[in-house]
Amino acid sequence: MNELAAMTALQNQIMQEPFGEYSWILNVLIYVFFFVFMFYGQKINTYIMLREVEGSLYKLKYIRDDGRKIAVETIKEIGKSQTDPTVRVDRFLEYFTISPQSLDPAGLVWKLEHVLDVRENRFKDEVKLMAPAADKTQTNNLENTLEAAMALNYIYKVIRHFYLLGKKTLSLYIIMQIQMILPLIMREAEAYASALKAFAYGQPIGDGAGALVAAKLMHGQPTRKIAKDCVVATVPIEGRTAYVIKAEGHGGNVGKPGDATKTIIEENEGKIATVIMVDAALKLEGEDVGDIAEGVGAAIGGPGVDQFKIEETILKYRIPIHAVIIKEDIGDAVSPLRKEIFDSVDTAIERIKQVILEKTKEGDKVIIAGVGNTIGIG
Amino acid sequence: MKKTPSSAKTKISLFVLLVIFITIALSLAAIIFAIQAFSTGQELVAGYLLLIGFLAAALSTYVLFQTRKRMLHLRIKTPPITTTIECRKCSFKSVRDFQRGDYIFKEVDPCQKCNENMLITAIYREVKERKEKTRF
Predict the structure, then answer these.
(1) Of A135, A229, A311, B119, which alpha carbon lies 20 to 30 A from A271's?
(2) How far apart are CA A259 and CA A67, in angstroms?
(3) What own/partner pairs with CB < 8 Å and gap ≥ 24 does A82-87 have?
(4) Which of B49, B76, B100 is nearest residue A202 as measured by Cβ atoms?
(5) CA distance A376 to chain B (A)
(6) Using CA atoms, how far apart are residues A202 and B98, in angstroms rounded to an integer?
(7) What are phi and psi of A148, to 5 degrees?
């Protein structure tokens, strides 16, 4: 109680004479602040940024662990494996792919395609070992689930690397570069977390908008396999013959639309009036989700192998190529299909029909390639 | 990969909790002392103690709620996904929650009205987005 009385007395004195004999305290404080910020301002800034990165890293760790848990649980549920798949899943999450050497770029696409094929086969074999009871569709979905978990693991590890490096060196520039792009990275990580759940349950995702357009066009028509994981249906549209291509559904799969387009063009000896590609594309901020835009060129993402093949083939036969895109952001592209995107599919079909009417004559043959992951789309 | 116990991921740090509760206790003590000082006629001291007490209590409660909010924010929300099933013959439509195994254009149970096989025609999620007002 004595201390409290002394404290209150002092407080009383200070408060009663705020600018009296104790005003020097304020002056000293101002000088201290001035010199501290002059010499240690950058360090303080660095610590503030580090704290910010630490907060996001904490969230990334949670998302990564949650993703891993979902992947393991889904494999256990679907795969009915005799052994615990956790060790294999952990090993899978650390897999990497080395892209081919590009010092001599000639033939690079074929090398890249080969590496990607090997990667896909390896992933499928691993999934088969983890989940022996899974059928083809479930294997594809599990592979996609694991790939999303792998992406989350990679994002977490890269951010952790820069955080620890920044902490070790206390370099503002190391920390600053990661802090500046952190909001975008967090958006991407959240999108992957959402994608992981969609893949685990086999729900259609935003990226499948192109595949959904093709599925709606070919629904009720007989299909045949045209390339690896790709099907084609011959559909009469506005008096023309349309070869509608999409990845083989309904498992998580993008197929090889490049090979499929090439095969159809060669089957018809290049007598194709036009190629129309439909795909989901990233929108800019301010644009609405599900907006449709038209253009020319091969609308296809990914590593570029399929785009290269399509461009090579259409150049050989001088076939015009048109593109219809459905706009969405990165979060929508990998998370369950939004109503706006689903509704825009019918508008995209109308636009395709309009392109066909304007750019081709009756009796012509056209190719319509619906590009995207066909998960949840039959 | 290092594994973290699941509870550790969502638990608020014990140290933070301790600091918050000590601050709350001190702020309550300051309020009590303020009442005492007021009863002995030291209005100015009472006023300052009351101010300090309320400020500290408000700040610690805010920090506590913020920490809890951050923990809740970590959970990834799963939006409800709906599956629309339609009968091609009589156009009977039903909407239900998504079930594992559903896919667009999958044939499902026969129609309640005409006994024809029904078809899943749509699977989507509805997002209620608050549109930010912008001049552009």
Answers:
(1) A229
(2) 33
(3) A85/A130, A85/A131
(4) B100
(5) 4
(6) 10
(7) -65, -40
In this prediction, residue B12 carries a pLDDT of 64
Among B110, B77, B85, CA closest to A335: B77
Q: Which residue of B has its CA nearest to A62?
A: B9
- Give the burial class of B38: count Cβ atoms within 10 A of its Cβ; 0-12 exposed, 13-18 middle, 19 or more buried: middle
Q: What count of CB pairs under 8 Å joins A to B?
A: 100
Residues A356 and B82 sit within 8 Å (Cβ to Cβ): no
Domain boundaries, chain B: 12-74, 81-125
| Beta strands, E only, chain B | 81-87, 93-97, 107-110, 117-125
d(CA A350, CA B113) in angstroms, rounded, equals 32
What domains, with CATH codes, occur in chain A? Answer: 47-201 (no CATH), 206-370 (3.40.50.1470)
Per-residue pLDDT, averaged over A278-283, amounts to: 95
pLDDT digits (tens, 9 = 90+) for A119-131: 999 999 999 989 9
**Contact state of A342 with B124 under an 8 Å Cβ cutoff:** yes
Q: At B70, which amino acid appears?
A: R
Query: Max alpha carbon distance in chain A (Å)?
Result: 103
Give the N- to C-terminal CA distance of chain A in Å, as an integer: 79
> Cβ B102–A376 below 8 Å, yes or no?
yes
Residue of B nearest to A186 (CA): B74
Q: How many CB atoms lie within 10 A of CB A36?
A: 12
> Which residues in chain B have Cβ-Cβ distances shorter than 8 Å to A378?
103-106
Q: How is residue A312 written in tokens?
A: 């090579």
CA A331, CA A333: separation in Å to the nearest integer? 5
Q: Phi and psi for B124 in degrees, rounded to 5?
A: -155, 170
Confidence class for position A55, pLDDT limits 50, 70, 90:
confident
Q: What does the pLDDT profile of chain B (136 residues) look like in tens digits? A: 444 444 444 456 778 788 888 999 999 998 998 888 888 888 888 888 889 899 999 998 888 887 776 666 666 666 789 999 999 888 889 999 999 889 999 999 888 888 888 999 999 998 877 777 777 7
Predicted local confidence at residue A72, as pLDDT: 92
The reported pLDDT for the residue numbered A18 is: 46
**Which residue has 């390896």 as its token pair?**
A122
Q: Residue B136's closest chain A neighbor by CA?
A: A286
| Cβ-based neighbour number of residue B92 at 10 Å | 15
